[in-house]
Amino acid sequence: MASKNKRPFISWSRLKKSFHYASMGITHTWKHEQNFRIHSILAVFIFIAAQILNVPPVEQAILALVVGGILALELINTAIEHCVDLIVQSFDVRAKVIKDAAAGAVFIYSITAVIVGAFIFMPKILSLF
């Protein structure tokens, strides 16, 4: 099925390129953003702990959504920071507010993730004692 502009509905080469560019964005963020690395490493420990503590699949899915949300927000935060830096060449209070608000969004979601993790892990940890 072709769209109106005569492009194929699905272009495998464009799809492959989009995955490549997304991978480059993730790699850049991993290399340059400390918080993304911290969240990624914590994610590995969370999923290992979920296996060790026999967390049910539904709760593991909830953990995956929360962890994925944090990592996605970190990527968006990095994109926002780079956009602001590109546009604003010197200190501007408005640019600071934009960057701080984006970082604040990650922080709020991180707190939410900790709360969700506590609801899931605390009963299992307490049952060990």
Topology (elements, then pairings):
Blueprint: H1 12-32, H2 34-52, H3 57-87, H4 93-126
Helix pairs in contact: 2-3, 3-4
Give the biggest beta sheet. Answer: none
Q: What CATH first level would be assigned?
A: Mainly Alpha
Q: Could you say what the CATH topology is called? A: Helix Hairpins
Broad shape: flat
Q: Give unreliable regions as ranges.
A: none
Query: In sequence order, what are the helices and strands, one letter per element?
Result: HHHH
Give the helix proportion (percent range): over 70%
Q: What value does the Rg take, in angstroms? A: 19 Å
The share of residues in extended strands comes to: under 5%
Measured between the Cα atoms of the first and last residue, the distance is 60 Å
Gross CATH architecture? Orthogonal Bundle
Helix/strand-derived class? mainly alpha
Q: Count the domains.
A: 1
Helical stretch count?
4
Describe the protein in words.
With 129 residues, the protein is mainly α. It has 4 helices and no strands. It has a single domain (30-126), classed as Helix Hairpins (Orthogonal Bundle).
Main traits of this protein?
129 residues, mainly alpha, Helix Hairpins, 81% helix
Provide a quick synopsis of the model:
With 129 residues, the chain is mainly alpha-helical.
